[in-house]
Write a structure and sequence with these properties.
The complex is a heterodimer of chains A (566) and B (240).
Chain A lengths: L1 E10 L3 H11 L5 E5 L15 E2 L13 H11 L6 H9 L1 H10 L14 E2 L9 E2 L5 H16 L2 E4 L1 E9 L2 E9 L4 E12 L20 H8 L4 E2 L4 E8 L9 H4 L3 E3 L7 H4 L9 H13 L10 E4 L5 H7 L1 H11 L8 E10 L3 E2 L18 E3 L4 E2 L11 H21 L9 H16 L6 H15 L6 H21 L11 H25 L17 H4 L1 E7 L5 E7 L5
Chain B lengths: L1 E8 L9 E8 L10 H11 L19 E4 L2 E4 L15 E5 L6 E3 L2 E2 L2 H9 L20 H8 L9 H4 L2 H5 L5 H12 L9 H6 L14 H5 L6 H12 L3
Parallel strand pairs in B: 1-5
Antiparallel strand pairs in B: 1-2, 3-4, 3-5, 6-7
The chains are: A alpha/beta (566), B alpha+beta (240).
């Protein structure tokens, strides 16, 4: 068995992980970055529309300020944004984006050469900096280049199975080298979880197949709570049946949503902001139109109409959208509307951290010493119950950077923990038996069951009845997973079926939390809408949920107040 | 209707070496333009053989994971629709790993050299000290325009894998590295003083190995004019 030591190990090579590595490299010689996919394949590359900062670079945004950005973020978050974290996000946004520019991100520019800005839903000023409609790709590639320059050590296609912990301290992790087909133990002075989102638990999602919430699964295994998991963001405009993202910038640049009658129905639901209302509101309006039979041809989709925009504008600002619509829907947005429907997009919840990125335990006082989290995997609580578009790339770089800086401090004393031989043995025999056992259910069958359940019973509209059923089904799927799973691919070498099965294990764990948290929150707020409790109840529910597993594997939960001071 | 597939199989742990396995999947004729090669491979893995191995992630051409040789051309499996492959003369879909790279298993290749060559051309902004760290570099749309196309590269490897010079000479940096080099070298903010051009001007590894076969242009899923980019780098190397 291979054994690798690094001062700091980062899990995940998307925007948050890459940004963390750059910052940590300023303090440490020796930083390792582990990714289950090859670097540059992480899902951050699919972020399209932009990254928010109140730079006030254009005429229409010259009255903007970080205070207004914070205020919009808090309003969009429906009461659950922690103000201290929101302030860190908004106040440093300009500086953090300029840092990206100086690392070479090819941002779109104004005539005089400044970073251009465009409108996005829930933001009162045009605040989104963007690189055409490839902003995530542009940022990831620049961050990657910076890491090449700084000589970060990359471990591509290693799947992290578990953390090695001792009390509230982490000493390293156990990973599976997919190519070699063997376990590798990494020891480290500190670890950052930047493992990304978890939307693969849903049928229709903008997320790639790698977004399986592996960090969330690892957290639950180690008694770490997950915060605010009931808040799953559905994006209004997924390409019909494909779940390919049609950026909100399409509406920011002036696109209309239309129903079967050709009506701009958002005028009715949100007379002020129309298509640029926060995502949760737009999605509910769309779902109502569909449920009331005004979907296109009475079906479960609507249209986003860009035909009134000039071809020059689409060519300059939304070229990828045109390419995607042509490639995957056979529609030229210059001439025809694009068929779209809501899809799972982003998890507002995650592994709870303070504003330095340090992971919090079950209680506020049992903070982890040297374990950090950042990006979509984390919940530093800047999105509350509903995230504003362009705030996620900002969160990833802001808190990735901070986690990198503070984790590097913690990592300086060096590696102290011992290798947990029991843990390694356990995973060795687990992986061996998975490839030898004669089960009867393939992992994709269980995954299909999970996706269907989450989409139908824990989607845009939720009810006690549906959620209770969902919980039963998930328990059944968990049981089948542990008793009947079979893996056809028996080889050691590059066994993607084995990796997929391990990912499913994580999905079945955190999906239970999503459903339980949704069932317990008997109110409607942000992205969480209960048809049986349609009102927002601030008196009882202005608080964060924390769900964790106790030592016997039972799910426990409690709530904590929102941090309103800075 | 049944669609015939021939898929290249290779597992170093098995004795039989490399072979093509025949599969078929059923599809409704009207659904052909909806079904991609990636969809089909996923179905084959789920329905026919769980050990069939390939990489994929985003499913819409932005992550660069699923480049492979499909009916004789390098393409992204996720962006290739069956309807565009099948015709009166062609009744089957043949899928092989990207040529020119060592095969790890089935359709998975080792792209290590692609990324090594990328490192050699310094894929980052050199310098950028024109202003204080708190200020953005100015760059007009006219200054940005020349590199826009090259910034679309997703490092899928389809171009380099299609290049006969690269097949013959693994020291040759290849079209992907040249596109990436051009993207940084021609960025108005970049202040490299010849160090990148030195690598690009190298006799064995540099741009002069390009024989303008244009395979790379055909292969690029982002429609980057790779040969055009290489020609610009040649002119720059000559001091124009």
């Amino acid at each position: 068995m291979k054994n690798i030591d690094h001062q700091l190990v980062i899990i995940g090579g998307g925007a948050a992980g890459l940004r963390a590595a750059i910052e940590a490299k300023k303090e440490l010689d020796d930083v390792g970055l582990i990714s289950k996919v090859r670097t540059l394949r992480s899902h951050s590359v699919s972020a399209q529309g932009g990254i928010a900062a109140s730079l006030a670079n254009i005429q229409e945004s010259h009255n903007d300020s970080w205070e207004k950005h914070l205020q919009d973020t808090i309003e969009g978050g429906a009461g659950l944004v922690d103000k201290d974290a929101g302030e860190v996000l908004a106040k440093n946004a300009g500086g953090n984006v300029i840092e990206l520019e100086r690392m070479g991100v090819p941002f779109s520019r104004t005539e005089e050469g400044k970073l251009d800005q465009r409108p996005f839903g829930g933001h009162t000023f045009p605040r989104a900096l963007y690189a055409a409609d490839r902003t995530g790709h542009a940022i990831v590639y620049a961050l990657y280049g910076e890491n090449v320059k700084l000589e970060t050590t990359f471990y591509d296609e290693y799947f992290v199975l578990d953390l090695m912990t001792d009390g509230n301290s982490v000493s390293g992790l156990v990973a599976y080298d997919v190519r070699a087909g063997e376990l590798v133990v990494f020891r480290a002075g500190a670890v950052i979880l930047a493992t990304g989102g978890c939307s693969q638990a849903y049928q229709l999602t903008s997320s790639g197949t790698a977004s399986t919430g592996d960090g969330l699964g690892m957290a639950l295994k180690n008694g770490i709570p997950l915060q605010d998991m009931e808040f799953i963001q559905f994006h209004p405009t997924g390409l019909r049946d494909k779940g390919i993202l049609i950026t909100e910038a399409a509406r920011g640049e002036g696109g209309y949503l239309r129903n079967d009658r050709g009506n701009r129905f958002m005028e009715k639901y949100e007379p002020e902001s129309k298509e640029l209302a926060p995502r949760d509101r737009v999605v509910r309006a769309m779902q109502r139109e569909i449920n009331e039979g005004r979907g296109i041809d009475g079906k479960d989709y609507l249209h986003i109409d860009l035909t009134h925009l000039s071809s020059a504008k689409i060519e300059r600002k939304l070229p990828t959208i045109r390419e995607l619509a042509l490639d995957f829907a056979n529609v030229d947005p210059l001439e025809q509307p694009i068929p779209v429907q809501p899809m799972a997009h982003y998890c507002m919840g995650g592994i709870p951290t303070d504003t330095t990125g340090r992971v919090q335990g079950k209680e506020v006082q049992d903070e982890w010493q040297n374990l950090y989290a950042a990006g979509e995997a984390a919940c530093v609580s800047v999105h509350g119950a509903n995230r504003l578009g362009t705030n996620s790339l900002l969160e990833a770089v802001t808190f990735g950077k901070r986690a990198g800086r503070f984790a590097a401090e913690q990592a300086k004393p060096g590696i102290s923990g011992k290798i947990d031989a029991n843990l390694v043995d356990r995973y060795n025999s687990r992986l061996n038996s998975l490839r030898k056992d004669q089960g009867s259910v393939r992992s994709h069958e269980l995954h299909d069951g999970l996706k269907e359940t989450m989409t139908e019973k824990c989607g845009v509209f939720r009810s006690s009845e549906d959620l209770t059923e969902a919980l039963d089904i998930i328990h059944q799927l968990q049981k089948e997973y542990s008793e009947k799973l079979v893996i056809e691919d028996r080889s050691d070498n590059f066994n993607t079926e084995l990796r997929t099965a391990l990912e499913l294990g994580n999905m079945l764990e955190y999906s239970e939390v999503i459903v339980r948290a949704a069932l317990e929150r008997e109110e409607s707020r942000g992205a969480h809408y209960r048809t049986d409790f349609p009102d927002r109840q601030d008196e009882e529910w202005l608080r964060h949920s924390f769900f964790y597993k106790n030592s016997s594997g039972k799910l426990r939960y409690h709530y904590r107040p929102v941090r309103n001071s800075t | 209707m049944e669609i015939a597939f021939e898929v290249s199989r290779y597992n170093p742990e098995e004795k039989e070496g490399n072979f093509y396995q025949k599969f078929s999947i059923s599809a409704r004729p009207g659904n052909l333009d909806d079904l991609t090669v990636l969809d089909s491979l996923i179905r084959l893995k789920e329905e026919k053989d769980g050990s069939l191995t390939f990489r994929h992630s985003c499913g819409h051409g932005s992550c660069g994971s699923c480049a492979m040789l499909i009916n004789g051309e390098n393409r992204l499996a996720c962006k290739t629709h069956l309807v565009d492959l099948l015709s009166q003369d062609e009744s089957r879909v043949k899928v092989s790993p990207l040529p020119g790279f060592p095969v790890i298993k089935d359709l998975v290749v080792d792209l290590g050299s692609l990324f090594e060559h990328d490192r050699e051309i310094k894929p980052y902004l050199v310098g950028s000290d024109k202003t204080s760290p708190e200020e953005e570099n100015l760059q007009t749309p006219e200054e940005l325009a020349p590199i826009q196309e090259a910034t679309k590269c997703i490092m899928c490897g389809a171009c380099t894998s299609s290049c006969p010079t690269y097949w013959d000479n693994k020291k040759y940096l290849g079209p992907a590295a040249f596109v990436r080099a051009f993207r940084w070298e021609s960025d108005s903010r970049d202040e490299s003083e010849g160090e990148r051009m030195e690598v690009l001007n190298d006799k064995r590894g540099g741009v002069w190995g390009c024989n303008k076969v244009f395979n790379c242009n055909d292969a690029c899923p982002k429609d980057i004019d790779t040969v055009g980019v290489i020609e610009k780098l040649k002119r720059k190397a000559l001091g124009f």
